[in-house]
Amino acid sequence: MKQRIVFDIGMYDGSDSRYFLDEGYHVVAVEANPELAAKAMHAFSDDILGGRLTVLNRALADEPGEISLVLCADDLGASSIIEGKVA
């Protein structure tokens, strides 16, 4: 049987990842905010150890290289790689 894979870009609190894991999918989750990625790695440790979830603490950008992540203190999910664009 083929693995069904879902990409969760901007994992935030992991609710979408949890849904797809519960539906039997393998999930590759990308979260730029290091605090949210660390929380997810702890909360989803069984799924990670079971090989059903991969959490990548990365940002997606137009070009390769290092970038700065602007964090919103009020809402960790409103981070941005574009300065001045934090919601």
Rounded to the nearest angstrom, the radius of gyration is 14 Å
Give the uncertain stretches in residue-range form: none
Figure out the total of helices. 3
Report how far the terminal alpha carbons are from each other. 42 Å
Helix share bin:
25-40%
Beta content comes to 15-25%
Task: Summarize the entry for a quick read.
By secondary structure, the protein is of the alpha/beta class. It has helices spanning 15-22, 34-43, 45-49, and strands spanning 5-9, 26-30, 53-56.
Give a verbal description of the structure:
The protein is α/β, with parallel strands linked by helices and 87 residues long. It contains 3 helices and 3 strands. The protein has helices at 15-22, 34-43, 45-49; strands at 5-9, 26-30, 53-56. Strand 1 (5-9), helix 1 and strand 2 form a beta-alpha-beta unit. The N and C termini lie far apart (42 Å). The model has no long low-confidence stretch (mean pLDDT 86).
Question: Characteristics of this structure?
Answer:
87 residues; alpha/beta; three-stranded parallel beta sheet; 3 helices; 3 strands
Helix and strand arrangement:
Layout: E1 5-9, H1 15-22, E2 26-30, H2 34-43, H3 45-49, E3 53-56
Parallel strand pairs: 1-2, 2-3
